[in-house]
Amino acid sequence: MKINKLLLCLLSLLVFVSCANDDDYETVQVASAITMSVAELRNSTSVLPPQNISESGKVYVKDHLILINDKKEGIHLIDNTNPANPQKTAFLKVLGSNDMEIKGDYLYVDSYMDLVVFDISNLTEIKEVERLEDVFPYYAPYPVDATYINYNTYPQDQKAIVVGWNIKEERRKIEDNPVYYDVSNAAFSESFSSSETGQGGSLARFKIVNNYLYAVDYSNINVFDISNLNTPQKKESVEAGFDIETIFNRGEYLFLGSMNGLYIYDIKTPAVPSFVSEFRHVTSCDPVVVDGDYAFVTLRGGNFCGAINSSLRVIDISDIMNPVEKSSYTLEEPYGLGVKNDKLYVCDGDAGLKVFDKKDVPSVKLLETYDVEKAYDVIPLANNLIMIGDGILYQYSYLENGLELVSEFEL
């Protein structure tokens, strides 16, 4: 009996210690950096056979060529000679890529902190012809599913960069750990017409106007003289604010969408964009397109975008020095948008592609909603409309009273 009591006491003591210890520990998701040397990055571009897409990014169209960015991985090239039956032709591996622009026979692509130029005059033999190094700020990718970052795994010099994260569950003692950093406090940023150029969507960060390429990052307009298409020259960057997300051109003006507002710059002196005016709004993700005297802005709330609600805003820019909001419409999860004649096309995430009548702008009227999975960005071309969804390329023809699906291409 005494032995049983002794065992019971010992068991109780162990349970007590275990509970006390449990109170001192927590289960967290810790991100360890996946790194690559800068030298390896700069030697990694290659042309590969067609690949399946990992994560749909931005879309760009030049004549019968469609380019779709696979976020941070590269660009899928699609022959769209027959829109009813598009064909993948190649995958251009460019690590760290998010944006692209074409002029003539040259394709400009970002690769983390570099600008890379490709000769695409022969699509069966694409060649890298120039790389401007360290022309963009480098932002580490965001470890969205992690609680902490283990900075012991972070590069200690500028000879390597972070290209991804390995996230594992860990049981750790609750204490201030100098090599663990709270992700909720981290400041990361995703890293961002002439007949010779193509057309990108409203989510683009690159825009070619005549002999200049304008590329926005988190806070700057990066300016490149591309008079010699295969040897762009970096000009001085223009500080443009914070949380810059997109760029749109209309005439002699650049319209920058940011998480805090719409910024307008003139490019009368192309090498030196100059501030004209701004329209401030609640913090949210913010692409913009312009048609005539009006700018159309979608504000996406939720997640890191800040605002709770999402909406479409119509802004009168007839007085370019004094933009004024004229109307607002509730949306679900808006991303890119585009205009053609009297129609406004809005990608509303899982709520589909929405078509508005804007004949009576600043009032707009919802005409139709097309059910698609994760409508992301749209380009209304002269004869057809191209939209990128979650791993799917949609193409529509225009009807008098709507759109007709031409093809639905699995990427």
Automatic annotation (TrEMBL):
Q: Coiled-coil regions in this chain?
A: none
Keyword list, A-Z: Signal
Signal peptide positions are 1-20
Q: Is Nucleotidyltransferase included in the keywords of this UniProt record?
A: no
- Official protein name in the record: LVIVD repeat protein
Which species does the entry assign this protein to? Galbibacter orientalis DSM 19592
